[in-house]
Task: inverse folding
């Protein structure tokens, strides 16, 4: 019941991040019917290219074996028969393996994922095995297999039914003609099965892609959680911002005792300037603040004997500029006059 409710909540399309994460975990849409089509097509191609020569070779070797069958031991005869069968099946098996691997890689976009290929011991659970056997997914696979058997079997039957009149005369054929016509009939059957399998593969590919997409759908809560992961939790970001501001204020207040002068609004703004005649090319803003912070700067400046000079227009004009940077050139003249005034006061003191 909980799973049904969760599935109903997932009404939003999957994000690109969710699709990428699923791919990284090896969760991609793969249609087994497309793989079956490729295997069947590779087998038909091999038969079309090599079956006539292979058939004649097998007939020749089989004839040799039959000529000496009375002189061979049972084990030797069985070994010879197995060798002939292996020779006949080897091209088909190799082509099927290559087609299966190539088709799977093409569907996954050349994805190699070790975790997906690793053994999953949770599948050994009898309870989960029963759920897989009698679940909706298993019933769907059974229904799909039945449809496949009916469609492919009907295509093969139609070809065989049309070939029955020719097969009735097969008793008059020699070994070479029997091999050639048998291979031709097998190829016709495989072509018919290929056509039927192609229709099934197209339908299964669409169904697999849609089912995979639906399995990755998101709820609104999933979208919010993903946004938090990408952008960070707003509460955490606000806390970090507050910590950074607090540290910046501490650094500014620590710089106020070293300032040359504090220019004030006089109550709303406070900008502390530092200037060392021997090392600085121009005065620097070492601390600034408004309202409460401005009051704190004035308090620290008073405690440490830093002069306060009231100049509201200049204080407001300097406040937007960055800390620890030389003031803009347009403020050199008024600031120089204030610093000269401060130095004059200190000289008198």
Result:
């Amino acid at each position: 019941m909980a799973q049904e409710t969760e599935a109903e909540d997932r009404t939003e399309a999957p994000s690109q991040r969710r699709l990428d994460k699923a791919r990284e975990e090896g969760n991609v849409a793969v249609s087994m019917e497309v793989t079956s089509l490729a295997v069947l097509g590779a087998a038909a191609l091999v038969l079309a290219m090599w079956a006539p020569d292979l058939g004649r070779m097998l007939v020749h070797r089989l004839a040799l074996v039959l000529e000496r069958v009375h002189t061979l031991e049972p084990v030797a005869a069985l070994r010879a028969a197995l060798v002939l069968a292996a020779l006949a099946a080897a091209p088909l098996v190799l082509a099927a393996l290559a087609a299966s691997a190539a088709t799977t890689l093409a569907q996954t976009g050349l994805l190699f994922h070790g975790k997906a290929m690793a053994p999953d011991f949770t599948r050994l659970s009898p309870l989960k095995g029963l759920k897989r056997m009698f679940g909706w997914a298993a019933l769907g696979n059974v229904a799909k297999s039945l449809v496949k058997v009916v469609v492919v079997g009907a295509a093969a039957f139609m070809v065989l039914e049309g070939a029955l009149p020719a097969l009735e005369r097969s008793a008059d054929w020699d070994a070479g003609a029997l091999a050639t016509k048998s291979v031709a009939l097998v190829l016709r059957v495989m072509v018919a099965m290929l056509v039927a399998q192609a229709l099934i593969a197209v339908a299964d590919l669409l169904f697999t892609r849609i089912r995979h997409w639906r399995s990755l759908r998101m709820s609104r809560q999933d979208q919010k959680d993903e946004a938090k992961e990408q952008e960070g939790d707003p509460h955490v970001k606000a806390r970090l911002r507050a910590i950074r501001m607090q540290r910046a204020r501490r650094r500014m207040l620590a710089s106020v005792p070293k300032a040359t002068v504090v220019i004030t609004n006089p109550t709303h703004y406070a900008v502390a300037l530092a200037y060392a005649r021997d090392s600085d090319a121009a005065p620097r803003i070492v601390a600034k603040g408004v309202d409460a912070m401005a009051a704190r700067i004035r308090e620290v400046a008073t405690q440490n004997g830093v002069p306060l000079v009231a100049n509201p227009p200049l204080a407001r004009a300097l406040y937007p500029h960055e800390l620890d940077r030389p003031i803009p050139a347009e403020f050199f003249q008024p600031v120089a006059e204030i610093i000269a005034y401060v130095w004059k006061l200190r000289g008198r003191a």
